[in-house]
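Lecture notes, part 5. Sequence design as translation. It can be helpful to think of inverse folding as translation between two languages: the language of shapes and the language of residues. The source text, in structure tokens, appears below.
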């Protein structure tokens, strides 16, 4: 089922999400719905707060990057990088920071360069409740950090300089008022 994506200004996007347990109601259906919602919006990641749930859960599928020439050397890894992250914890961030033009399904029409470390070490449970610990780099680490920020109540626009924030301020206000066009189902703050 395709769920509405919460827009900038919704308080759930600013909450620090809480851990869940194995008995979380209808978890496998929720994960399936999150993937379906993400694909419908042509996204590569979706966090539970973006669908109104302040829980530590996000999904990622980086298959679309596999076709991009910029990632030719890791295209095979990207083709199979479809993961569920339950109760994740980033243990370490390392390497040089690099800029990438990020966007967000909760903030349609706004894209800006954000600097993030190139490598992370993350611990999480997969959809089968197996504990995983991985060191991940490149575009994979970037998308994970973006989605991880969502469960911490952080948006990519928080990383912008004061000048850049001023430039996007009106766009953000319009999004929070529902004055934005998106090609997918959205829910705007009241």
């Amino acid at each position: 089922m395709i769920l509405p994506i919460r827009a900038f200004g919704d308080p759930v996007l600013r909450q620090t999400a809480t851990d869940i347990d194995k008995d979380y109601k209808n978890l496998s259906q929720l994960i399936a719905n999150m993937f379906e919602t993400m694909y419908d919006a042509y996204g590569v990641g979706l966090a539970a707060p973006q669908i109104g749930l302040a829980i530590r859960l996000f999904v990622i599928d980086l298959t679309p990057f596999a076709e991009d020439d910029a990632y030719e050397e890791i295209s095979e890894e990207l083709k199979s990088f479809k993961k569920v992250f339950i109760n994740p914890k980033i243990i370490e961030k390392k390497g040089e920071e690099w800029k990438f033009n990020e966007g967000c399904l909760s903030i349609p029409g706004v894209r800006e360069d954000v600097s993030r470390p190139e490598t992370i070490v993350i611990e999480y449970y997969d959809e089968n409740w197996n504990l995983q610990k991985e060191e991940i780099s490149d575009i994979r680490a970037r998308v994970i950090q973006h989605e991880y920020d969502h469960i911490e109540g952080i948006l990519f626009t928080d990383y912008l300089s004061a000048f850049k924030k001023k430039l996007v301020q009106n766009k953000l206000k319009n999004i929070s008022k529902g004055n934005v066009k998106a090609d997918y189902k959205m829910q705007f703050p009241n």
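The translated text above is only one of many valid answers, since several sequences can fold into similar shapes. The beta strands are 5-6, 45-47, 57-61, 82-102, 112-125, 131-137, 186-187.
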